[in-house]
Amino acid sequence: VSSGVVIARGVSRRGDYARAMPSCRRLRRGRFHRRPQRSADAKAARLAEVIAAWRALDAAAEPQRGRELLAEAITLDDRRIHPRRWAALHQTLADLCAQDDPPRAIACYEQALQVWQLAEDPGPWVHAHAQLGLLLAPRHPPGSAGAEAAIEHLERALEGEPAVARLLAVLYAARPLGDLHHNWQRRMHCLG
User: Fold this and answer.
1) Do residues 153 and 133 touch, judged by C-beta distance below 8 A?
2) Which of 44, 105, 162, 192 reaches 20 to 30 Å from 81, CA-CA?
């Protein structure tokens, strides 16, 4: 071996390259095709159909069908073009999933909160934080990161959604972290 590179018996550099390249050659020959993407007009038309079907649906009578329609609408919508509609679809899906599929509801509320801002969308912002706190609180033991996240979400929602005050007071009473006096003050504030 003159160049200092050990080449296995029967394998040349060119052979290694040739074995690595077939996939590129197949791509050039057109053996691999990308799935055709829907045009923007076709996506918009399908999204309008799905939203119309959702509006015509009695979601209380057919919650599964409602979840399916909203999930499809989310895949068709573009957050960059219509961020508020995208967030509203996520939040509506989260509302439908809260009882039957809480992890999915939590993920959808978190997605919606990436768009909602308190100054621009106070109602949806407060609702998403309140629901996230309500979903997270019973799923995590006091002192865990999940319980602290629930407290944080409920604190944010407290002014606009006073109904969360009792749960927040219970969480502060059971909270082993932080200053005990501060936890007691927050609890009394929520109850008072």
Assistant:
1) yes
2) 105
Q: What is the pTM of this model?
A: 0.75
Quickly count: other Cβ atoms within 10 Å of residue 132's Cβ: 25
The rounded distance, in Å, linking the Cα atoms of 76 and 44 is: 7
88 Cα distance to chain centroid: 12
CB 76 within 8 A of CB 43: yes
The pLDDT profile of the chain, 192 residues, written as one tens digit per residue, is: 455 554 455 545 555 555 555 555 555 555 555 665 668 889 899 999 999 999 999 988 999 999 999 999 999 999 999 999 999 999 999 999 999 999 999 999 999 999 999 999 999 999 999 999 999 999 999 889 999 999 999 999 998 989 999 999 999 899 888 888 888 988 898 888
Say how many C-beta atoms besides its own lie within 10 A of residue 104's C-beta: 16
**Residue whose entry in the numeric block shows the structure tokens 């799923």:** 139
- Torsion, Cα of 153, 156, 96, 117 (10° steps): -120
Best CA proximity match to 130, nearest among 87, 163, 105, 99:
163
